[in-house]
Description:
By secondary structure, the protein is mostly helical.
Amino acid sequence: xxxxxxxxxxxxxxxxxxxxxxxxxxxxxxxxxxx
Length: 35
């Protein structure tokens, strides 16, 4: 079902772009050891 998820994210990301960016930043700064 890759196409389904692609379409889902294509619709989901523009609606919550700022939230996802904030979440990615939070994860990135909270788990630097994973890098």
